[in-house]
Amino acid sequence: MKLQKGTSLALYSTLEFAANPGRSVSAAEIAAKYGVSIHHLSKVLAELARAGLLDSVRGVGGGYRFSGNAKRVTLMDVIELFEPVGEPPGEAPHNEVEAAFSEVLSEIDETARATFRSITIETMLKLIERRRRGGEETASRPALEMEGK
Amino acid sequence: MKRPANGSAIQIRPAEPADLGQVIAIDAEVTGLEKTDYWYEVFHRYGAARTRQRLFLVAEVAGSVEGFVVGEVRDWEFGSPPCGWVFGIDVRPGSRLGGVGTRLLEALCDGFRHAGVDTVRTLVARENGLVLSFFRSQGMMAAGVIALEKSLE
Question: pTM higher than 0.90, yes or no?
Answer without folding.
Answer: no
